[in-house]
Specification:
Layout (H helix, E strand, L loop, with lengths): L2 H4 L28 H26 L3 H11 L20 H15 L4 H33 L1
Helix pairs in contact: 2-3, 4-5
Length: 147
């Protein structure tokens, strides 16, 4: 026997598929879930009430991990906070420059975090694009009326 026959190498067996051809050309159906995932969901559905009760008992008994788990579900951590700072009115695209200056000043003074400033700058950019789109549409309509 040769080495490839002992180890079941490719040279010792007939090829079931041509090179580059899949044994399952359609693949797994879209949305199909793994059998272990389905089993885990069934177990959770059957035992959900008992699991919740045991976590609550553990939290009441002083298990801080269980308590944190419950609190995170009941009152999740907010991703952002409400911010208030002076921002000039933005009615036309040119106004965005002044508003961005206010955002940068608020970040520089520590009134806003850099992440908050970037989020507000993104909102201002979205408003600028919306204003420019409306202005552009109005200009096109005016030109079409002239024709």
């Amino acid at each position: 026997m040769t080495g490839s026959e002992k180890s079941g190498g490719k040279q010792g067996r007939a090829h079931l598929f041509k090179p580059g051809q899949s044994g399952n050309p359609k693949g797994k159906p879209r949305g199909a879930r793994h059998r272990l995932t389905l089993l885990a969901e069934k177990l959770m559905d059957d035992q959900a009430e008992a699991i919740v009760e045991s976590v609550i008992k553990a939290a009441k008994a002083g298990d801080m991990v269980a308590a944190r788990l419950i609190l995170e579900r009941v009152s999740p951590v907010r991703k952002g906070r409400t911010v208030q700072f002076a921002l000039p009115a933005v009615e036309k695209a040119d106004d965005v420059l002044g508003a961005l200056g206010s955002v940068i000043a608020a970040v520089a003074s520590g009134e806003l975090t850099p992440d908050e400033g970037a989020t507000i700058a993104g909102l201002l950019e979205a408003k600028r694009r919306a204003i420019e789109t409306v202005e552009f549409e109005n200009r096109i309509l005016a030109l079409e009326e002239k024709k």
